[in-house]
Please model this.
Amino acid sequence: MLAKRFQFISLIAWLLLTALPALSQSEETCAGVLKDIRLKQTVATAGVWANSTNSYGSLRFESAEMFKTAGSSLSDDAPENLCPGRCTASPRPRIVFRSVPSKFLDRYRGKANCEEHFAVTTKNPIEYRKTNFASIEAINTWFSDFSQGKGKDGENLYQRCDGLCSPQYTTIIEEKERGSYDVHAQVVCGPARDKNDNNYNLELFLRWTCEKPRVVRGPDTNL
Model:
């Protein structure tokens, strides 16, 4: 009897030991896996008149529309089978908004400087972290000023991305508790944009983070 009990305990121990590496590997697979789901993309003009009048198709108008879509999409559920294996999607997505010039110049004054900035900031973007925005509209207002070199952050950016170099923006928005929002702006300082084209490519994504499987506890049978 004791021998059979010992064999049973040994079998359980072996099963646990062989399962642990698989669970650990699953958790490692989950960690750091990001999934971006595109919500919207468009092309917008940076023309002065169109933006001063907030016309349809202007950078100002289309960016505001993107941010509105972002606000209404934060409550979306993650698509099925989004994450690999037994991983699960994060309870809430982040919003990713990208704004990049459509065309760039081949020849321009200060090209070497912009190429140097581009090489550095592609690997290590210029970053700005802002917290406690009360609404998506407030974020849009901040970004509009920031991307035009206005305000403390905008002035700082234009000093760091100087000359004819053009910023390329990735703005990550995270909803916190009680309806406040944090913003993480990442900027690549790139080559001079072609102002004869004068357009920007805008993209909006929901970003889901894959996490290790959640443990679901059953009812306590000892009660």
